[in-house]
Automatic annotation (TrEMBL):
<dbReference type="InterPro" id="IPR027268">
    <property type="entry name" value="Peptidase_M4/M1_CTD_sf"/>
</dbReference>
<feature type="domain" description="Peptidase M1 alanyl aminopeptidase Ig-like fold">
    <location>
        <begin position="452"/>
        <end position="562"/>
    </location>
</feature>
<dbReference type="InterPro" id="IPR037144">
    <property type="entry name" value="Peptidase_M1_pepN_C_sf"/>
</dbReference>
<dbReference type="GO" id="GO:0008237">
    <property type="term" value="F:metallopeptidase activity"/>
</dbReference>
<keyword id="KW-0479">Metal-binding</keyword>
<dbReference type="InterPro" id="IPR038438">
    <property type="entry name" value="PepN_Ig-like_sf"/>
</dbReference>
<feature type="domain" description="Aminopeptidase N-like N-terminal">
    <location>
        <begin position="94"/>
        <end position="194"/>
    </location>
</feature>
<dbReference type="Pfam" id="PF11940">
    <property type="entry name" value="DUF3458"/>
</dbReference>
<protein>
    <recommendedName>
        <fullName>Aminopeptidase N</fullName>
    </recommendedName>
</protein>
<keyword id="KW-0645">Protease</keyword>
<dbReference type="GO" id="GO:0008270">
    <property type="term" value="F:zinc ion binding"/>
</dbReference>
<dbReference type="InterPro" id="IPR014782">
    <property type="entry name" value="Peptidase_M1_dom"/>
</dbReference>
<keyword id="KW-0031">Aminopeptidase</keyword>
<dbReference type="InterPro" id="IPR045357">
    <property type="entry name" value="Aminopeptidase_N-like_N"/>
</dbReference>
<dbReference type="Pfam" id="PF01433">
    <property type="entry name" value="Peptidase_M1"/>
</dbReference>
<dbReference type="GO" id="GO:0004177">
    <property type="term" value="F:aminopeptidase activity"/>
</dbReference>
<dbReference type="InterPro" id="IPR024601">
    <property type="entry name" value="Peptidase_M1_pepN_C"/>
</dbReference>
Length: 891
């Protein structure tokens, strides 16, 4: 619901411990068709000096109606408390421990924010992170208040046969009027953001996992009846995650039951509520006919992620929300490692780094830039960002680079030993890592407090006379001028950070040079240099010939690196000989970026794309030289957002035309190779779909090649695509063929193919999300009208976040239509933001984020985008979520 403009801003430096604690809480949910009553009975403990009697403040929200307040069993006289929409204050609570009972009424069926208690497809469910529990009852809604929960749920037995909450089922029975109940007890203390309740008509699939100490854990996945046949992959992923965490981190599951529930209406991906994970259904349901390789990979990763939170997030949680990266950065790191172990490690690393550079670097360079530990926020929901999650994971990787895998594990062990059952800070994590290894890691602390992506430049010098090779590093941060916070001492000019540079040197014959730093010991063929100063040099001795350096192997730190004087020959040398697979890929990627930027610059000068005949020779070379899983990557062009970093005031449509030109060039020059790639990697007739690294790599290359061939506009290719589309036996191939048809212009075949796809999948909302996204992202000029029409299509539901992400974010990815010169795309998104803000603040604020990059574009577009931001800003009753992003963008 829209609220008045915000006045409250939370700040890290204002943290104080809570004046009271809640030792235990009994919740009684009386679920009803329209009204739900929540009876909460809390055992409150003082957490202040005995001489004081501070007021007790419990957070609330305007949709929660207070019905009764009792202290130690007696109704509290009205003059002893104050109730506002923000919360309930007990003016003079009793001294010592006491019992506080609060009854509230809610309307879950009217709750479109999808926070607190709401309904999805007629079933009840909750989402409490970050601050949704206050939408259920008045409570100390902060993560450092950790209580033991007992939850009774009562509902109509026919409408809600399944009644779930956290922990163990300790009771159940019949109630009056065709109702029934269950009682759940969670033996582990937890913050209220980890509370969950699910009630409804759900089917269940069950399995078991035997832990390393021999305990049997019941694993259950709940879905609507229609979907229960699609949970096997998620179940297997869960079992693999449980085993992996035991093997890699020695972490065993701690209850006898682990539940996952899939719901269609969910703002984010999934939620790690203690023993009752709630998932967006798109991250649970998958069979080869409905889900792509990408979907399977995401499901595996997110199932792992939520499971891993049981230790990194639940057993050890955050003291306050500024510490979010403590659990998220660490858990993303863990899910990335899990996925790397389950699939191809090098491929996963390239994918993770691409995402980081394409999106997080952009965030770091825009108006919402914040350190992985933000210093202030208006709405915490806005800080579930790529910076906190993905850059946070890269910062965890820095510990690993510095300490090695064994040292990292020692640090993790000490972290759990010290902090199990506590709500702690990022400093506590750093201290555990440092103490376990006897290392001073204070140089890593700046990564938590500085926003922006550090820039690292490297100059190299070879001295044939004394056979030394010198690397000179310089570091500086970008983004400082766009920092959100007013300049404060130390923030506008950044301090140097510790940058671990994993590296090797390649001799002219491609062999590895043994590394020996001046005055040091032999290091083998790979070393991790610790760059800690603004300027620092490392001198290698005994280098017989001028080498080619291979720096930042595996992307050992999240920085922009420039190697001065690096030639195309150097890059091709790395491509051919580097022992680090990431850097081999990186060499090709750098070549592709250089090529695209050169093409763009030439087009800008001459007003003609490709006018100077720049082809793709470098990339043709790259394609020829890489093999296996990397061949598909070798012809993947860098994302626009990555290129724009070095293109001031970019024209996104011109950049798109450059991409199209280069795609056509490559398709023409590589046609025989691409056709061979299709033929060699096609599935054999009757071949079963498998989600394995090798099978995914084959499909990726085949489909990438088909996408290129589609760009040729050859009717024969279109015919082949249509044939493939009709005959596809899995969704990866089916949706790729449809997308390629779209790229090929599709001719008259495209509308019929789209209609056929819709009819085939009419009953599968998750598949229709792909159908919506594909049409929304079309680069056919004037497509905004079609997207407006799709909003009225039965496949689209404005109250469903997935629908909005597919249609609107899909549209924002179209350079031609979102960035249309007449501003029609921006106006459409402005309309969408305002409409959505009345329904769901979190979804609206994700949409408005499409405007935050406006300073990257040319003057006309900046003005048009800014005008939409201003129009949103001037609208009455804006949510805090949208207000925060718009106001920071307009600064
Ligand atoms: N903790 C979850 C993500 C999550 C965060 C916020 C939510 O609502 C605002 C929902 C889910 C995770 O990292 O998976
Ligand atoms: Zn998480």
């Amino acid at each position: 619901m829209p609220t008045s403009p915000p006045t409250l801003r939370a700040a890290l430096q204002d943290y104080t411990p809570p004046p009271y604690l809640i030792d235990s809480v009994h919740l009684n949910f009386l679920l009803g068709d329209t009204v739900t009553r929540v009876e909460s009975c809390m055992q409150v403990l003082p957490n202040h000096a005995a001489s004081e009697r501070p007021p007790l403040f419990l957070h609330g929200c305007e949709d929660v109606k207070l019905v009764a307040v009792k202290v130690n069993g007696e109704s509290l006289p009205v003059e002893q408390y104050e109730v506002e929409s923000s919360g309930l204050t007990l003016k003079t609570p009793p001294a010592g421990a006491f019992e506080l009972e609060v009854h509230t009424d809610l309307h879950p069926d009217q709750n479109t924010s999808l926070e607190g208690l709401y309904t999805s497809g007629g079933n009840f469910c909750t989402q409490c992170e970050a601050e949704g529990f206050r939408g259920i009852t008045f409570f100390m809604d902060r993560p450092d208040v950790m209580a033991k929960y007992t939850t009774r749920i009562e509902a109509d037995k026919a409408a809600c046969p399944v009644l779930l909450s956290n922990g163990n089922l300790v009771g159940s029975g019949e109630a009056e009027g065709g109702r029934h109940f269950t009682v759940w007890e969670d033996p582990f203390r937890k913050p209220c953001y980890l509370f969950a309740l699910v009630a409804g008509d759900l089917c269940m699939k069950e399995d078991t996992f035997t832990t390393c100490s021999g305990r049997s854990v019941a694993l259950r996945i709940f879905t609507r009846a229609h979907d229960i046949g699609r949970v096997d992959f998620a179940m297997q992923s869960l079992k693999r995650s449980m085993k992996w965490d035991e093997e890699v981190f020695g972490l065993e599951y701690d209850l006898d039951l682990f539940n996952i529930v899939a719901v269609d209406d969910f703002n984010m991906g999934a939620m790690e509520n203690k023993s009752l994970n709630i998932f967006n259904s798109r991250l649970v349901l998958a069979t080869p006919d409905t889900a792509t390789d990408g979907d399977f990979g995401r499901i595996e990763g997110v199932v792992g992620h939520e499971y891993f939170h049981n230790w990194t997030g639940n057993r050890v949680t955050c003291r306050d929300w500024f510490q979010l990266t403590l659990k998220e950065g660490l858990t993303v790191y863990r899910d990335q490692e899990f996925s790397a172990d389950m699939n191809s490690r090098p491929v996963r690393r390239v994918e993770d780094v691409c995402r980081l550079r394409a999106a997080q670097f952009q965030e770091d360079n825009g108006p919402m830039a914040h350190p992985i530990r933000p210093e202030s926020y208006i709405k915490m929901d806005n800080f579930y960002t790529l910076t906190v999650y993905e850059k946070g994971a890269e910062v965890i990787r820095l510990y690993e680079a510095v300490l090695g895998k064994a040292g990292f594990r020692k640090g993790m062990d000490l972290y759990f030993q010290r902090h199990d059952g506590q709500a702690v800070t990022c400093d506590d994590f750093l201290a555990a890592m440092a103490d376990a290894n006897g290392e001073d890691l204070s140089a890593l602390a700046k990564w938590y407090s500085q926003a922006g992506t550090p820039r690292l430049s490297v100059a190299a010098e070879y001295s044939p006379a004394d056979k030394t090779y010198t690397l000179r590093f310089k570091q500086a941060s970008c983004g400082a001028r766009r920092l959100l916070l007013p300049p404060t001492p130390g923030q506008p000019t950044k301090d140097p950070v510790l940058i671990p540079v994993r590296m090797g040197l390649l001799a002219p014959d491609g062999g590895e040079v043994p590394l020996k730093l001046r005055g040091g010991e032999m290091l083998g063929s790979e070393a991790v240099l610790r760059v800690t100063k603004a300027e620092q040099e490392f001198v290698f001795e005994g280098v017989e010939q001028a080498p080619v350096p291979s720096l930042l192997r595996g992307f050992s730190a999240p920085v922009h690196m420039t190697v001065e004087g690096q030639s195309d020959e150097d890059l091709l040398h790395l491509l051919a000989h580097d022992t680090d697979s990431f850097n081999r890929w990186e060499a090709g990627h750098v070549l592709a970026k250089k090529l695209m930027r050169a093409l763009y610059a030439a087009a800008k000068d001459s007003n003609e794309v490709g006018g100077r005949g720049l082809g793709g020779t470098g990339m043709v070379c790259v394609y020829a030289r890489v093999d296996g899983a990397f061949k598909a990557f070798a012809i993947s062009l860098p994302e626009n957002s990555e290129l724009m970093d070095k293109i001031p005031e970019a024209d996104p449509i011109l950049l798109h035309e450059v991409r199209e030109f280069l795609t056509r060039q490559l398709a023409a020059r590589l046609r025989p190779e691409l056709e061979a790639a299709v033929a060699e990697n096609d599935s054999a007739p009757g071949e079963q779909y498998e989600f394995t690294a090798a099978a995914c790599a084959r499909r990726a290359l085949k489909n990438k090649a088909l996408g290129y061939l589609a760009a040729l506009g050859d009717p024969g290719v279109t015919e082949q695509l249509l044939h493939r589309f009709r005959g596809a036996t899995n969704m990866t191939d089916e949706i790729n063929a449809l997308a390629a048809l779209d790229r090929a212009g599709g001719g008259s075949a495209l509308p019929a193919a789209l209609t056929g796809f819709y009819q085939k999948w009419e009953q599968e909302p998750l598949v229709l999300l792909k159908w919506l996204a594909l049409q929304a992202g079309s680069n056919v000029a004037g497509n905004v009208a079609a997207v407006r029409r799709l909003m009225a299509h039965p496949a689209f539901h404005i109250t469903n976040p997935n629908s909005c992400y597919s249609l609107f974010l899909g549209f924002a990815r179209s350079p031609v239509n979102f960035h249309a010169a007449d501003g029609s795309g921006y106006e459409f998104m402005g309309d969408v933001v305002l409409q959505l803000d009345k329904i769901n603040h979190q979804v609206a604020s994700r949409m408005v984020s499409a405007f935050t990059t406006f300073k990257n574009y040319d003057q006309q577009r900046q003005a048009l985008m800014r005008a939409q931001l201003q129009r949103i800003m001037d609208t009455e009753g804006l949510s805090d979520n949208v207000f925060e992003i718009v106001s920071k963008s307009l600064k």
